[in-house]
């Protein structure tokens, strides 16, 4: 499924090592799990399936054999996390992807988001600390930058969360840094910018924009844009996020909770996105319908990649358009058969 040859980029680094992927049945987590398995790692996945689906393992479950262990459970279950980080000699890496992940839903359900995204992350760090894990990679979010008009976003800018979700993610970054400083548990905070690709859920009221547009266009419906559509995003194909995680895990120096942007470094407006996708599906007449802006949404987003380049040697692997075409094809295949 990946456009990327992981073996060529990461060789034998992960062969024989054991990793825990929280939220591994979700969109990004399932790609990360697949890459780790293809690189010869053993992967334990914990996911409560509130947003993910075991169907996301279908492409590689068979070839992974018993190197993939899926446990249906929650990161709110401390005893289970302890068992999963320590059993079988313990895990070397934790890739913490589990979270409730929608800005508008967090505005509607702030307490629930705090429990899963803040307390859940605390639990994951506690389990990793007790198990003496080598490094925790945390799925941080570009929403931390808030609505500052300054572009591109640089990690030294202040965190200005505009939603409970963004606030959870900023708190988690602080916690990752604190665990590195207080306990020597090495952590890396990877601020993802609008990740997209196959397996991103389109069937949720809170679906991300590319998934939602695909669903509408394939149903011959005009896609809905919240606001004037001139808001822009640094849309990032999922292989880039996987690559950043693998590079962070491999880094030979301590990362100590540093925050790094993970993106493509290219800005596309939502209007441009809608037009490109309608073109790819051959339905240019399905122009968007505009509705009111949503609370908590930010206007523009574009990443500066200097820090992640310098720290872990990251370069985006797959550009926006190169990732969009196979993503649209995947939605067509899975939705229309
Ligand atoms: N997709 C993006 O553009 C983006 C951007 C910034 C940050 N992130 C972060 O990346 C991570 C992965 O996001 P995704 O897009 O793959 O979303 P996703 O919803 O597909 O994956 C999240 C997974 O976490 C699981 N989960 C939720 N609550 C859980 C709990 N209590 N215990 C165990 N598992 C639980 C869900 O079932 C789901 O499988 C999340 O932390 C998200 O906040 C994503």
Q: What secondary-structure arrangement, pairings included, does this model have?
A:
Layout: H1 6-10, E1 18-22, H2 27-38, E2 42-47, H3 61-64, E3 68-72, H4 78-86, E4 93-96, H5 103-108, H6 110-130, E5 135-141, H7 164-183, E6 187-192, E7 195-196, H8 209-218, E8 224-226, E9 232-233, E10 236-237, H9 238-250, E11 259-262, E12 268-269, H10 270-280, E13 289-291, H11 306-312, H12 320-336
Parallel strand pairs: 1-2, 1-4, 2-3, 4-5, 5-6, 6-11, 7-10, 8-13
Antiparallel strand pairs: 9-12
Helix pairs in contact: 2-9, 4-6, 6-7, 8-10, 8-12
The structure holds nicotinamide-adenine-dinucleotide.
Please characterize this protein's 3D structure.
This protein has 337 residues and is α/β, with parallel strands linked by helices. It has a domain at 14-195 and 238-265 and 303-317: Rossmann fold (3-Layer(aba) Sandwich), CATH 3.40.50.720. Helices cover 40% and strands 15% of the residues. It contains twelve helices and 13 strands. It has helices at 6-10, 27-38, 61-64, 78-86, 103-108, 110-130, 164-183, 209-218, 238-250, 270-280, 306-312, 320-336, and strands spanning 18-22, 42-47, 68-72, 93-96, 135-141, 187-192, 195-196, 224-226, 232-233, 236-237, 259-262, 268-269, 289-291. A seven-stranded parallel β-sheet has the order 3-2-1-4-5-6-11, sandwiched between helices. A two-stranded parallel ribbon has the order 7-10. A two-stranded parallel sheet has the order 8-13. Helix 8 (209-218) runs parallel beside helix 10 (270-280). The longest helix has 21 residues, at 110-130. It is globular and about 60 Å long. The mean pLDDT is 96. It binds nicotinamide-adenine-dinucleotide (NAD). Nicotinamide-adenine-dinucleotide is lined by residues 22-23, 25-29, 46-52, 74-76, 97-101, 116, 120, 139, 141, 192, 194-195, 201, 208.
